[in-house]
Amino acid sequence: MTAVHLTAPDIDPNEVAYFEKLAHRWWDEQGPFWPLHKLNRFRVDYIRAQLCRLFAREATATRPLEGLRLLDIGCGGGILSESMARLGAQVAGTEITEKNIRVSQLHADWSGLEIDYRLATAHELAEAGETFDAVLNMEVVEHVEHLPDFLADCARLVRPGGVMVVATINRTPLAWLMAIIGAERIMGWLPKGTHHYRKLVKPEELVQGLGEQLEPFDRTGVRVSPFNRSFSFTRSMAVNYMMLFRRNAEADNR
Q1: Which keywords does this Swiss-Prot/TrEMBL entry list (predicted)?
Q2: Percent of the chain surpassing pLDDT 70
Q3: Where is the binding site for S-adenosyl-L-methionine, in residues?
C-alpha cells in the first residue's frame, strides 16, 4: 500500500514523520508510549465524569456513554478511542499518518470494537459539516502549526450543546523544566523531541481560540509523580492541564 500523507496549513510534516517512526510501538505498555497508557486511565475517569454530568448519564453504569457520538482527534494508535468505545460511545478517530490508522484499526479489530478510524484532518471533517456530541483533543494542540486555525476547525465539529475536552502542556518555564528537560532528557519517560517549547499552549490561548464559539466549563491541572509514575489532579495548571469547553445549546454551529 502506498503511504498517504495529508497536507493542511496546521500540519507540521516534521511531527508527522516523527510519530510515524513510533507507530508500531503504540500498544507496547513498556515502550515509549507507556506514559500515555498510564495517563489514559487517569483521563478516561475525568472524561467519563464530565460527560456523564453534562449529558445526565449514570457514571457508574457499564456503558454510560451509550448513544453519544464522539470524535478523538489525533487518535494515535487508538488508546483513548478504544476506552471510549468500551464505555458505549460511537467513536470516530482521526489521524494524519496512515501507519497510525493501520495500527489503530488492527488493534480495534483484534479487540472486537467497532471504531470509525479515518485518515483525515479536523479541517476536512469541519468542511464536510460533521458534528459530534463530544470532541476529544488530547495531547494534540502542542503539535500543530497555526493553532488558531486548528482550534477554529475543531470548534466547528462540536454540535450545539456539545463539548470539547483539551489536554495539553502549558508554556511556562516550569513546564519546560518538567516536561522537556525532566521527562524527555533526564528520565527518558518520553523520546527526545516529543515536545517543542514554542508549540506549548497556554490556557488563555485556548480560551481565545475557542472563546467565540465554545465557553470554558471546567479546568484542572494534572500532576505527575516521578516516584511512582502516577497522575493526580492539582489546582496548578503550570505544567499539564485539561480544559472542558461547551457550546451553547442554541448555537447554530457555524
Answers
A1: Methyltransferase, S-adenosyl-L-methionine, Transferase, Ubiquinone biosynthesis
A2: 85
A3: 43, 74, 138
